[in-house]
Design a protein that fits this description.
single chain; 204 residues; mainly alpha; 70% helix; elongated
């Protein structure tokens, strides 16, 4: 009779099963591509930050670039760096950071969940959420990140509310509400699934 405490040898996969299982590595180029996209966002962040600092220091070229970036078509173009302009630029920087966070969650969480374990247990820099990541947790966190990004875009619209038609503002608000409802639906669905799994374990 075998000792249940001894490690068991995993069953050997058939060639077809092994091929199908190894196909998960086809996702690797996708995650590498997202890392390159992350590099582009980092470059874009520093360009915008450099222009903001240059505009604050009185650089005319940087000031014009800031105005080009934040001025809504049809709106009155500002003539100097004011609080609203600075706020719009900073919101744009926060938007880049939040999208970057979203990329990190997709890259690290997706690779860990769908491709291969990264063996980060005990690593001092291991993200808190990665220790219990699965497809449901990753899906919920992505939904929350998308809501944050949508909130930033909606706030930028409200700051420039006078330059937008009411239909545009209503449409953006409705889209944001849809994101909120979608996140709530995802969280509620996951809660039902976890409750069902726990109930099944208790029955056994």
């Amino acid at each position: 009779m075998s000792d249940p405490l001894l490690p068991t040898t995993p069953p050997k996969l058939t060639p077809l099963n092994n091929l199908i299982f190894m196909s998960r590595w086809l996702q690797l180029p996708l995650y590498l591509g997202l890392i390159l996209a992350q590099c582009v966002y980092v470059f874009h962040f520093w360009v915008e930050l450099k222009d903001l600092i240059g505009a604050a220091m009185g650089n005319a070229a940087a000031l014009q670039h800031i105005f080009d970036a934040v001025t809504v078509p049809g709106a009155v173009r500002p003539t100097k760096l004011n609080e609203a302009t600075i706020m719009l630029v900073v919101l744009g920087l926060i938007d880049v950071v939040m999208i970057s966070n979203l990329l990190i969650m997709v890259i690290v969480g997706g690779y860990e969940t769908f491709v291969s374990r990264m063996h980060l247990d005990g690593h001092p820099d291991q993200p808190e959420w990665l220790s219990h990541v699965n497809a449901s947790v990753l899906k919920t966190k992505l939904a929350m990140a998308i809501i944050g990004i949508s909130s930033i875009h909606l706030l930028k619209t409200f700051i420039n509310a006078g330059s937008y038609k009411s239909e545009v503002i209503i449409a953006q608000t409705a889209i944001h509400v849809v994101f909120l409802l979608s996140a709530l639906a995802i969280a509620y669905t996951d809660r039902i699934m976890i409750g069902t799994q726990n109930q099944s374990k208790n029955n056994h």
